[in-house]
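ok trying this again, last paste got cut off
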Amino acid sequence: MGRFPKKTTPGTALFFGLGMLLVLSPLPGATLASSEKELQSNRLKLNQTLKSLSNESRELQTQQGLEEGLLGELEHLDQQLTDLATQKELLAGQVHTAREELPKLATEIESLQTEQKKIRADLLHHVRLMYGLGSQGMLKVVFSQENTSKARQGILYYGQLIRARNDQFHRYTANLENLRQITENHKSLLAKTQTLADDLANRLVQLEQKKQERAQLLASVREKKNLHQQKVLELQRARGILGSFVEKLHSTLDPLPAAPPEPQAPTPSEPKPDPSPTAAAAPSGDQATTNQEFERITQKKGHLNPPIANRPGQNRPPGLFYPVENDTAIKAVYRGQVVYADWFRGYGLLVILNHGDHVYSLYGHNRKLLVTPGDWVEAQETIAESGDTGSLEGVSGLYFEIRDKGQSVNPRIWLGS
């Protein structure tokens, strides 16, 4: 009961089960006990395979959920990139327009500068003309005319000259202001365009980086998903092979009698036979008679007492897990014969009871076993003490499972409310 089997990989266990399936045939009664134990051990590999399949399926669903989330995020990023690409195209048009305006602005500036030079030349001409009048001044020139007509013409001429000079000054000032405004507009347009271009370029770079990161994460998730898909396929194949093996198990093992075999009373003419191990393991005649009054387990479906009283089991497909302290008494849910009581990988110290009608109950992670293969136990008889052997989580408790005709079933449909 304390020996540990050699560690095997799931693939090794799978091929071992397949080999057993291919070579197994009904055995004579002399070797049935050892064959039964070996068959039950291999049958449990189906349970372990189903458990692994359940875990891989859950992990596959998790990876598929991550994949869907990342695909949604990538779709959103693509939409953002599309919008930014449209904005970039519009901005590129604005930049192109601004660059086309540059020659026009340069031409206009050049024209204003030319006109400015002309006004400056005219002003210089007026200055020189006025300077040429010397100290006489305009009034002296006007009043020096010989007649009134010429004086009037002189006044008009100098009035026009003064107005022309004022207009030229105003035009010069307006042109300078216009030139400054155009220059400022030009600088503002270029600055705004450059700012938009820089901001858009930064946003595009950030989104592209984010998209690359999400794409890499998606590739990793898909790689994990594909790995789990392969594992699920392998485990499904293993389940099929071991399922066939369990069917072979049912056809190989003798049906469990309704009660332990009742010893025959010796007749006066023949001596009482020596007790054998099988007879020693069997209950007395009175107990066998009592046992025969029990119903078959299929008639008790939905009314079995739980393996641990007053403790609700937690779902751990395909069975239940009862979190209890070490050394808690583990009870048989119904009468039956012990077909396995030893260490099993993943379940620690494990007890399997055969209740007849191809119904089995399993009790795993025990700290101590109180029965041995071949023993008969009654309903609610203590068969083990709870522990955490074989538990990957290191949590003390009992793993309980019921199998009907080789298939894992929900234990709750067999247990009472």
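PB: full thing came through this time. The beta strands are 314-316, 319-322, 329-331, 336-344, 348-354, 359-369, 376-377, 382-386, 398-404, 407-409.
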